[in-house]
Design a protein that fits this description.
The complex is a heterodimer of chains A (500) and B (127).
Chain A (H helix, E strand, L loop, with lengths): L4 H22 L3 H27 L2 E4 L10 E4 L1 H28 L5 H20 L3 H20 L5 H30 L4 H7 L7 H18 L7 H8 L2 H25 L3 H7 L2 H21 L4 H22 L2 H31 L11 H4 L1 H15 L5 H15 L3 H32 L18 H19 L1 H7 L11
Antiparallel strand pairs in A: 1-2
Helix pairs in contact in A: 1-2, 1-4, 2-3, 2-4, 3-4, 3-10, 3-14, 3-19, 4-5, 4-10, 5-6, 5-10, 6-8, 6-9, 8-10, 9-10, 9-13, 10-13, 10-14, 12-13, 12-18, 13-14, 13-17, 13-18, 14-16, 14-17, 14-19, 16-18, 16-19, 17-18, 17-19
Chain B lengths: L1 H4 L2 H19 L3 H23 L31 H31 L4 H8 L1
The chains are: A mainly alpha (500), B mainly alpha (127).
Chain lengths: 500, 127
């Protein structure tokens, strides 16, 4: 059974996604429970995969028994076993807490279709993580985009335009990726990542390889919302149904960031982007500008979902920065930031979902007394906000710590300054919310003296929604406290040999 | 001159891609944007089909292989075209069709909601 675990993650979700609309025709309510069960099985399979990787080393799963350069293979090594469990865990928790919000925001007739697309989205993200084949990756990339277009379009007014803009940009991104695969195929005749890695060093000075690399960078850049290519992201995250924002914000851009890691580190060698062409340097500057831009734009926003979306652009910058530093600490910091940011942003978007579900408030200025109405939710919000700012012992502190160590050991002092400055900007826009929520009742009536503030009744979101949010907050702390174990068992293996 | 004629199909691919790209960026009509996207994707299909073909090559089926074993030495690989890029394009065509389908469905919904498919008019209504 454990040998089949990698494929079970995909197969369960695919088969269920097919059956959900059919069963949903007869009983609309059942769609959610079937989807939840499937995601749980996929989560269990992902855990089994991770367990097997930790015990026996990387898994090579050959589809249909065809050996690699000809057949498609799933390769699960230490990095993507971790990312796989991360995706499965976060989507499982999001699914539990999303039920009520989906019932409120989505028309009842559309439930089966909604959950079917939802399953396909998670399936494709897991597939992108597991696959070891370039073209297979393209297919998963397109499935994830297509389902995301549909899910985003189910949102509030304006979601249609947001989704349409994403269709245009997303298909350009995927097409560029496909062209990159084609260019690599011309010179190597292979689509398998390990095979490409082996063939690549002899072809470093071919112009075709340069072109392919450029296509990959732009294509993946669009998918992950890297700074100049991010224009689809704020609208899509803001307009999508709250449950979908909570699913795609922590998972989709993180998986794309993982794909960027994979392409730079294990399709091309890291030396290609540092020595042969100055790609790492260019990416570093792009990331730095993106970090500052995202933070400043986030400060300017009133809508909490839009603010979190801009903050995502900034956080993607951190991950790319870690990759572009191309030294041991930088790579580990960037990879750890995938984990810490996925938990933190997932938690924040789930909090936004709970607030929208219970009160309908999106404007930050109206957050007054929310701590009394929803104490547990806001407590989780504080933990996640502290992680985004980078306060120990949350996960955000440690990933930023490794990134700063990376900038220091690479002597990129300006990048050190960028990370620290951006942490300050993060503090501005998160502490603004915390101040509005917790302290405005103290400040508001200050002039009149002894007015007793009216007692606010506690109207916490349902337990089904709050418990996953609290678990995400625990996850943030766990990634922080156990960061050494995560790095020791999973992330240290991504650093290629011969790198300081 | 040889530089252009020898790689004729690649020049066509680049020209088509740029036409499609132009339509996606510059046109205000949403349907025209989608047409541009289709031209863009078709250009990629042309590119992939071009990299698989050979001048004077034939389809990669071994004649008479069913009746008696063909000695591997007698097969000259240069005589056969590479079928793999063509097969990949079957998938890409399916993906392209589904993206177009989703985009057109979105346009229908947009038209029902805003009563127009012109981007600038929709933006005016949104603001």
């Amino acid at each position: 059974m454990i040998h089949q675990a990698p494929i079970l993650t995909i197969a369960t979700l695919l088969l269920t996604a097919f059956w959900v609309p059919i069963i949903g025709m007869f009983k609309k309510e059942s769609a959610y429970y079937i989807a939840l069960a499937a995601i749980f099985i996929a989560f269990a399979a992902a855990c089994g995969t991770l367990y097997s990787v930790l015990l026996h080393g990387p898994i090579h799963y050959h589809m249909g028994g065809w050996p690699p350069p000809w057949g498609i293979e799933f390769v699960i090594d230490y990095l993507n076993a971790g990312v796989l469990v991360l995706i499965a865990l976060i989507s499982f928790l999001t699914t539990i807490s999303a039920k009520k919000s989906v019932e409120q925001e989505i028309n009842r007739d559309k439930w089966p279709a909604f959950w079917s697309l939802y399953l396909l989205l998670i399936m494709s993200l897991m597939g992108m993580t597991e696959t070891g084949d370039m073209f297979n990756m393209y297919v998963y990339l397109e499935v994830s985009s297509l389902t995301a277009y549909g899910l985003i379009a189910m949102g509030e007014d304006g979601a249609l335009i947001a989704s349409f803009n994403y269709v245009i940009l997303g298909s350009v991104g995927a097409s560029f990726y496909l062209l990159g695969v084609g260019y690599l195929y011309i010179v190597t005749g292979s689509l398998n990542m390990a095979d490409l890695y082996r063939l690549m060093p002899g072809l470093y000075h071919s112009k075709v390889v340069f072109t392919a690399f450029a296509f990959f960078m732009v294509g993946i850049g669009i998918k992950m919302g890297l700074f100049p290519l991010h224009v689809w992201l704020p609208d899509a995250y803001t307009r999508a149904p709250s449950a979908i924002s909570a699913l795609i914000a922590p998972t989709m851009t993180k998986v794309s960031a993982y794909v960027l890691f994979r392409i730079i580190l294990s399709v091309f060698h890291i030396q290609f982007s540092t020595m042969i062409i100055p790609a790492a340097k260019l990416l570093m500057w792009i990331a730095a500008v993106g970090i500052i831009y995202g933070s400043i734009m986030a400060i300017a926003q009133k809508d909490i979902k839009r603010m979190l979306a801009y903050s995502s652009i900034s956080q993607i910058g951190y991950i790319v920065l870690g990759l572009a530093l191309a030294n041991r600490m930088g790579l580990i910091g960037g990879a750890l930031h995938i984990f810490s940011h996925a938990f933190a942003k997932g938690c924040l978007f789930m909090v936004a979902m709970a607030i929208v579900y219970k009160t309908g408030i999106r404007n930050i200025d109206e957050f007054k007394d929310l701590n009394k109405k929803m104490p547990f939710t806001m407590a989780a919000f504080c933990v996640a906000a502290l992680s985004m700012v980078g306060v120990p012992p949350t996960a955000g502190f440690f990933s930023k710590w490794y990134l700063v160590l990376g900038t220091i050991s690479g002597r990129h002092w300006l990048m050190t300054a960028v990370i620290l400055a951006s942490s300050l900007l993060n503090a501005i826009y998160f502490f603004r919310i915390i101040e509005k929520t917790y302290f405005s009742s103290f400040l508001g009536g200050g002039g009149h003296g002894h007015h007793k503030t009216p007692t606010v009744v506690m109207t916490e979101a349902p337990a089904m929604m709050v418990i996953p949010i609290l678990l995400m907050a625990v996850g943030i702390l766990a990634v922080g406290l156990f960061n050494f174990q995560i790095i020791h068992h999973l992330l240290q293996f991504i650093v290629p040999g011969g790198l300081a | 001159m040889e530089f252009f004629l020898g790689k004729f199909n690649y020049w066509v691919y680049i020209a088509m891609m740029m036409i499609g790209f132009y339509a996606m960026i510059a046109k205000h009509n949403l349907v025209k944007k989608i047409i541009g996207m289709n031209i863009f994707q078709t250009a990629i299909i042309l590119f992939y089909v071009s990299i698989g073909t050979k001048k004077g090559g034939t389809i990669p089926i071994l004649e008479g292989a069913g009746h008696h074993a063909v000695a591997p030495e007698s097969i000259n690989v240069a005589h056969y075209i590479n079928p793999l890029p063509h097969v990949l394009m079957l998938t890409a065509i399916v993906v392209g069709v589904s993206v177009t389908g989703v985009a057109l469905a979105l346009i229908i919904l947009i038209y029902k909601r805003y009563n127009t498919v012109e981007e600038d008019e929709i933006l005016r209504q949104l603001s």
